[in-house]
Design a protein that fits this description.
- The complex is a heterodimer of chains A (478) and B (360).
- With 478 residues, chain A is mainly beta.
- Helices cover 6% and strands 38% of the residues of chain A.
- Chain A contains five helices and 30 strands.
- Chain A has helices at residues 20-23, 30-36, 95-102, 207-210, 377-383, and strands at 10-15, 45-46, 48-51, 57-61, 74-79, 83-88, 103-105, 114-116, 119-122, 130-132, 146-149, 158-166, 169-173, 185-189, 191-198, 205-206, 225-226, 230-237, 240-257, 263-269, 272-274, 308-315, 331-337, 340-341, 357-358, 363-370, 388-398, 403-419, 430-436, 459-464.
- In chain A, the strands form five sheets. Chain A has an 18-stranded antiparallel sheet that branches. Chain A has a six-stranded antiparallel sheet with strand order 9-14-11-12-13-10, with no helix packed on it.
- Chain A is globular and about 70 Å long.
- With 360 residues, chain B is mainly beta.
- Chain B has helices at residues 87-94, 171-175, 268-274; strands at residues 11-15, 27-28, 31-34, 37-38, 41-44, 57-61, 64-71, 76-77, 83-84, 99-101, 104-108, 117-121, 131-146, 152-159, 161-163, 190-196, 209-217, 229-230, 237-238, 254-261, 279-286, 293-305, 318-324, 347-351.
- In chain B, the strands form three sheets. Chain B has a 20-stranded mixed sheet that branches. A two-stranded antiparallel ribbon of chain B has the order 5-6.
- Chain B is globular.
- The mean pLDDT of chain B is 95.
- The chains are: A mainly beta (478), B mainly beta (360).
């Protein structure tokens, strides 16, 4: 039996459900959680620093008056796990967390995530483990890239190229659920641009309730649900991982300060903890990785402060933002607070919580700090209650042809408070707190929003090596 | 357009003639730090409208205020109207512009804090204008002193309005304030005399302190919003509903004094505490060469707490907390003229370069 050493710990997170998008159901029992739990593998590792998850077992003591001061018994009455994970920001490994916290990524295989430097494909009849293209687009160097089918009955599937057969054929893994037939179009790429938006709801619901144009002509069906909860695995003492099932993310705080690395703190609301999972069993945590099992995977990188391309802020009327709006900040924090109701129980949920749901408006708030006070720009914005727009982009090194990045878009915000105190003899810094608001219209120069009723007050783009649309259950390498 | 640097900041204050009307500064404040800011309140559009997102917010109230920390110095001047001093702020906190007697200013706590003041300070952003807090009142004042240091005072201000581009004060008003260097009131220049009320405390009643903290809480109303008022319910015209109305006392003022004795070597304070003894005290500060003075006089105190815990192998110190009261009949405490009774919970007397009351 080993000892837990933090240095040997690791974590992984994947959106559920193992029951499939149609039959997924928030558990009410341990058996139900077993069904929902997904196998964590090569696309799911997260770069965690620390965790404080607890099962939060509550007991009621037997305090009836029995003629003795001693308490004879106690009964378990609830299990309401919760806790936080602190995560270091890397360009690969944050998508599942961001997706769970925000709730929406465009499901259209035609352009989500957007393939970068891609190759358009058109299939002839492909076999169960092949993609054949009469245009002979393939090369041996394509091993490790991903093919996403964008049309026909096979639409929505994503598979990794595992072998090069010839210019007109590659082997994919795992086998197709629906083989691409003649004239099925697809796209092949190594770099992918995701756009995450805020969704009204975070509980399990039909995809068509969220996005009316959800594709149902391919592997998707009208009964598919969008699932924003996930399986979280923590390896604490080798080799048995602890598995927190059906975790919602109630809040996500992303911050970056000068001289530092992006940090993410996520507040998890799990259904339960399984310390002897039959799905994520002994030793399988060895498979937890970022690389999607691709030999082309370029080493993951930390998101560091010096890589900030720009922080741009201006009044809404001055859109689009440009280099003239660049503002030197030394610190930035943004918090997504989903305000979920996490303590509801009923007779059917026994010891456990009912599926968390929004219990109030979501709140997107934040702060930025400027090391020098040399203009009243932001005090003027604050005093005038000006509606502002913000874009913060952080860019890393090139993956293959594209530079990886994470990009924050805030289409409407107001400054709630600001200060530039003379705290001593030194330079006077500025600090501003802001609140994001749902914008009334599209903002010129901002990404096209796919949810417009209401529009999202925060959008996050990630350009990474993750080929999967986070809510379409495309990662089939179990 | 410059960059704000603390060392380059000059702060000045002046008593206003009427509420909401800023005035140019007359007293340079030897300040250490400030945290005066807007404390805006907003109405978030949180009604139920089919969306999880919040679509907007409106500003509803614009109170301002914050903290100001300064050195206590022996007041210096360049002329009859311009000083470098914390005396004006202390007088504002007490509500009393002073009685000038025998070359000294004597201040007592008064019931009504009637007079606001303007604070102006440059953060080197604008070419001519400065930051300006208009019509300030002091809700709390804390005077502290400790070994190897000087006396400091911290004020919590409530302002009517805060501007980054002042309405009245200009940079030139600040740069014209005195540039002479005053002497700080050092802790080692203070003596602490305390005794029961059987006779005025003297040299035989001196206790060695490591530190002290005197706190005055005026218990002013927090920033309040009212609709416009044409002197119907207020004694002035309230013309901007975004700004707070003039604060008033909202309860008894509270004065406490805490001292830390360097050594627990006697049970005087425990005995006084157990017997609920009414005490009286002087805190006298004298500059060793100029003989300028900064004195705090307490006519009536009782001990609330006086622990002397053994917290480790080191010497045992004793911390005594007093509640201060208005003068009782048995008190002997007077100002240095030996004629003027200190009637409020404490009185402050300063003998410096002032030659008249601070304000009347």
């Amino acid at each position: 039996m080993g000892n837990t050493v933090g240095a040997f710990s690791k974590a992984a997170f994947r959106l559920e459900s193992d029951a499939g998008m149609v039959n997924a159901a928030y558990p009410t029992t341990v058996a139900g959680a077993d069904t929902e739990e997904v196998l964590l593998k090569s696309s799911d590792q997260i770069t965690f620093l620390s965790e404080s998850l607890k099962e939060n077992l509550s007991f009621e003591q037997d305090v009836t008056l029995l003629g003795t001061p001693g308490v004879p018994n106690t009964d378990l009455v609830s299990i309401l796990p919760a806790g936080s994970l602190e995560i270091r920001g890397f360009y690969d490994g944050l998508d599942a967390l961001i997706a769970a916290a925000m709730g929406f990524e465009l499901p259209l295989a035609t352009n989500s995530p957007a393939a970068q430097n891609s190759t358009a494909l058109i299939s002839t009849d492909s076999g169960a483990t092949s993609y054949k293209d009469g245009g002979n687009p393939f090369a041996s160097g394509d091993i490790g890239k991903f093919i996403r089918v964008v049309s026909g009955a096979a639409e929505g599937q994503v598979r990794r190229i595992s072998a090069f057969v010839g210019a007109g054929e590659v082997t994919i893994t795992p086998a197709w659920d629906s083989n691409p037939v003649n004239a099925t179009t697809a796209v092949m790429a190594q770099e992918w641009l995701h756009l995450f938006e805020l969704s009204n709801h975070l509980h399990d619901e039909l995809w068509t309730s969220v996005y009316g144009s959800y594709p149902t002509g391919g592997v998707g069906t009208a009964n598919d649900q969008i699932i924003r909860r996930g399986t979280l695995g923590l390896l604490k003492w080798n080799p048995i991982p602890q598995i927190w099932r059906s975790c919602f993310i109630n809040s996500l705080t992303i911050s970056l300060s000068a001289g530092g690395v992006l940090s993410v703190t996520a507040e998890f609301i799990p259904f339960d903890l399984d310390k002897t999972s039959s799905t994520n069993t002994t030793g399988l945590s060895n498979n937890w990785a970022f690389d999607h099992a691709s030999p082309l995977f370029v080493t993951n990188e930390q998101i560091i402060f010096p890589e900030i391309s720009y922080f741009r802020i201006a009044a809404t009327g001055d859109a689009p933002l440009d280099s003239g709006d660049n503002t030197g900040i030394r610190e930035f924090t943004i918090t997504i607070n989903n305000n979920l109701k996490v303590d509801d129980m009923d007779a059917s949920s026994t010891f456990y919580r009912l599926m968390p749901m929004r219990n109030s408006h979501r709140e997107i708030t934040g702060n930025f700090k400027i090391p020098r006070y040399n203009a009243d720009t932001f005090f003027d914005f604050q005093n005038a209650e000006s509606e502002l727009i913000v874009n913060l982009k952080i860019t890393g090194s090139t993956i293959a042809s594209s530079a990886r990045y994470i990009n924050f878009w805030l289409p409407s915000l107001k400054l709630e408070s600001g200060e530039a105190p003379v705290g001593g003899a030194g330079v006077v810094p500025q600090s501003y707190n802001f609140r994001c608001l749902t914008p009334g219209a599209a903002v010129t120069g901002f990404p096209t929003q796919n949810l417009i009723a209401p529009r999202s007050e925060l959008m996050i783009q990630t350009l990474s090596q993750n080929p999967y649309s986070m809510f379409r259950d495309q990662q089939k390498e179990y | 357009m410059g960059t704000a640097k603390g060392f380059a900041t000059i702060m000045g204050v002046a008593k206003e003639g009427s509420f909401k009307t800023a005035v140019a500064p007359t007293d340079k404040v030897p300040f250490i730090s400030e945290g005066i800011k807007w404390n805006y309140e907003d109405k978030i559009f949180d009604w139920l409208q089919g969306s999880a997102g919040i679509p907007g917010m409106d500003r509803v109230f614009e109170p301002s205020g914050g903290s100001l920390e300064a050195e206590i110095v022996y007041t210096q001047k360049t002329d009859a109207t311009n000083f470098i001093s914390t005396g004006l702020l202390i007088a504002m906190a007490m509500g009393d512009g002073g009685t000038f007697t025998g070359g000294a200013n004597q201040h007592l706590l008064v019931d009504t804090l009637a007079d606001p003041f303007t604070v102006a300070w440059n953060k080197q952003i604008n070419a001519a204008k400065v930051w300006e807090a208009i019509s300030c009142f002091i809700n709390t004042m804390t005077i502290t002193g400790e070994t190897n240091g000087s006396l400091k005072v911290t004020f919590e201000l409530i302002a009517y309005d805060l501007l980054t581009d002042s309405s009245t004060s200009e940079i030139s008003d600040l740069t014209s304030l005195p540039t002479t260097v005053p002497s700080p009131v050092l802790f080692n220049q203070m003596i602490f005399q305390i005794a029961d009320q059987s006779g005025e405390p003297g040299a035989g009643d001196q206790y060695g302190l490591k530190s002290f903290t005197l706190t005055l809480n005026n218990n002013l109303t927090p920033p309040e919003q009212l609709t416009l008022d044409a002197t119907k319910t207020l004694d002035y015209a309230h013309t901007d509903a975004m700004q707070p109305i003039k604060p008033e006392r909202n309860g008894h003022r509270e004065v406490t004094l805490e001292v830390v004795l360097g050594r627990y070597s006697g049970d005087d304070f425990f005995d006084w505490q157990n017997n609920e003894t009414a005490l009286q005290a002087y805190f006298l500060g004298t500059h060793p060469s100029s003989s300028e003075e900064f004195d705090i006089c307490f006519p009536h105190l009782k001990i609330l707490d006086a622990p002397a815990p053994v917290s480790g192998p080191e010497v045992v110190e004793q911390t005594v907390t007093f509640q201060c009261f208005t003068r009782n009949s048995a008190s002997d405490i007077q100002f240095s003229d030996n004629a003027t009774n200190v009637t409020s919970e404490f009185g402050i007397e300063t003998d410096d370069q002032r030659t008249a009351v601070i304000y009347s």
